[in-house]
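## tool: complex_structure
## caller: assistant
## args:
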Amino acid sequence: MPVESLFPRLEALLPKVQKPIQYVGGELNSTVKDWDSAGVRWALMYPDAYEVGLPNQGVQILYEILNELPETLAERTYAVWPDLEALMRAEGVPQFTVDAHRPVRAFDVLGLSFSTELGYTNMLTALDLAGIPLLAADRGDDDPIVLAGGHAAFNPEPVADFLDAAVLGDGEQIAIAITEVIREWKGEGSPGGRDELLMRLAESGGVYVPRFYDVDYHPDGRIRRVAPNRPGVPWRVHKHTVMDLDEWPYPKKPLVPLAETVHERFSVEIFRGCTRGCRFCQAGMITRPVRERSITTIGAMVDAGVRASGFNEVGLLSLSSADHSEIGDVAKGLADRYEGTNTSLSLPSTRVDAFNIDLANEFSRNGRRSGLTFAPEGGSERMRKVINKMVTEEDLIRTVTTAYSQGWRQVKLYFMCGLPTEEDADVLGIADLAKKVIRAGREATGSRDVRCTVSIGGFVPKPHTPFQWAAQADHETVDRRLKALKDALRGDKEYGRAIGLRYHDGKPSIVEGLLSRGDRRVGAVIRAVWQDGGRFDGWSEHFSYQRWMDAAAEAGVDVDWYTTREREENEVLPWDHLDAGLDREWLWQDWQDAVNDVEVEDCRWTPCYDCGVCPTMGTEIQIGPTGRKLLPLTVV
Amino acid sequence: MPGTVRPPPGGTTATRKDDSTLKPVPDGPPPAPVAQRLRVRYAKRGRLRFTSHRDISRALERAIRRADVPVAFSAGFSPHPKISYVGAAAPTGVASEAEYLEISVTRRCDPGGLRTALDASLPPGLDVLDVVEAGAGSLADRLECSAWRIRLPGADPALARAAVERFNAAERIEVERLTKKGMRRFDAREAVVSLEAAEAAEGAETTAGQASSQSCVILRMVVRHETPAVRPDDVLTGLRLVADFAPPVPPEVTRLAQGPLDVRTGAPADPFDLDRDNSRGGETEPVSEHVGGDL
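## result:
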């Protein structure tokens, strides 16, 4: 069946919408392949606006890897804003890819990358605009396989009814494996239709097909059992882990958008995984073990990426970039290479120690010097022990003193509110800490021209973390503590004006909590919210708490039961059949340790504490140092 | 390396002791001086007409880096490449064959080579058409008027011609448009040097790729650059006001040329003529009546 470009029909709508450039494609390094000669075709979606979705590393990596495969094509699609959605509905224009403007329904796979649960309603919009039935059960052989990945896919149960399949963990190898399963099945003439294809994927143990699992409930609403409902389907589905990141140096050719996006830089993941053991951090738990990219691969990727893109900023990504075993040499090597080229380097997250300032100095050598950011996360010593953020007040003050005395004038501090066992005093401790930071800065510089910005996020308990059993704080409590903190800062004549405070109210966290730890019964709420017009829930101007609460009440879903209820050790959790490699008993012990203020070290430098990931997954920690250095680039 | 703290690298807040103003200046060598200024004419075509001016400036800065153009940077804490956009940019959604900018470089470049390199580094649809070394005089001053073409697919040719006649016969046509300063009311007639309507030939290309079996009207106009600027959509508003003429689908607008108003032709002349004359050192006959820059 010939597939024609939808662009002529879309083009007529573009003069009537905001920022039309986001829908036209044609980005530098984007790929358009011949439709007919591709046996397997992927539409990759980041379910948020183009400006957020385009820079997403996961989508860019898979896009490039799939397009490198012979007889395979991958295109991208993003959430359209409500202005275009309305016009598309009026004119009957379906969801399209931005590469060749092909209709999404014509592809074999619609792969969605969920970094956050707040993209679920946008998925429904895309399915509906594409003409794909919302419920997986209603789809036929002409519909694509709707496949979810990304961190939120570690508990896909709230969207299980809308998904045909989900994959956990690193996508590079499993995307190729799925492509080959589909190619083989199509080559055989698609025997057994959609059901057989899904069965072939499920049998491997690496793809979760929700429809092949039944969920039974206790009379009180807790889950009794999640079990396969047909032979050949494994009881548990395992996550994927790419070993040796040097073998997978993607993205090689970063997409360079014409439209303005949230990150305008070339980013290189310098390692995956983190074993610092922060108990609130889902990413740190589900991406273990630590796998470093070598200094030489990092150097080669930065060189190729900057040449291919023309970006003037390079980001060295990871969950804790300063922990790379050769970060000092990486920073110095890159700063030397790009001396005098107006290319700046950035490091997303920083540890609280003097070494980081050394790094930051190196990184700001060729570019602008903005602020330094540290994340103590908890306002009191006790709180930081609970969350296993091993930073003392003394560390923090020593570090900011060094920063201020070396010419930095602005320090940003990240905290969370609503953490397990948190009391009002823990949050007020943030104000004390911020004041001490300013006092240290004034002493170090002899000037009053120092500032500190405090940013506060609401804590949401996440699956596969020690806090998966915890009660989430209700939004009234969070708002009350934030107000007390605000009053404590604003009312302070000596320090108040030097300290900025940024936070959100507690309501969105409750919805995120419902979606994070929800089960299949939450799907009805998502659908009802979407039907009522819910879109772009990650955007405060589009998010409506009331809409979610009304939909939950309508569906008979008790939001408190899912969010503010503490779980018992033996309760079956909706994601227990999905294996991130973490030993459940270890997680429980870590939760008990948290409550008792017991800290756990990082297994990179201390003996293994048996979280279970390496033996279960057949993986190991991969770190340097390699002892190599970055040489100057040869001048062409 | 942990624990070793380097002395501050070229700090951003260092103060030059001998500077009596004590204004903070960045350490390190000053930026390289400008060796040459080049003037660039470029087009935005097809789907790239949906780029905004900001989109173009980002794309251009990246293309300059990829093409290794030795662009000069401003001094200061956040150095910017020295690129200035000349004249009013064609609005988002409007195609153009004649947008202008000026680049300063630290090393002399061959204009032809720069044209090729920059064009190859820009996405297709942002096309570099012409590059000259800047001569004397301001390029902005030469961009006195624009020639525009408006395609109106599905519009009735007879109605369009009648509307254009009434427009041209009017002395003053007040239109309103929402600008950054709020709703403004201004005359859309006086700046229009010429306006004519024609029927498109069968099978003419359409930027939207639509089959053109239906009738299609082409408006051509030359409009002087005034303040507030009279844009093609203001002229369309004027046609609606004087003759109730409204196109059935969104118009496709293209800026064809910008330059000094040539009184012989009633159209914009090539604003680079003067730069080329200068570089030829007067070998050719002095061309046209715009030498001297006044009309």
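## assistant note: The radius of gyration of chain A is 25 Å. The longest helix of chain A spans residues 424-445. Handing back to user.
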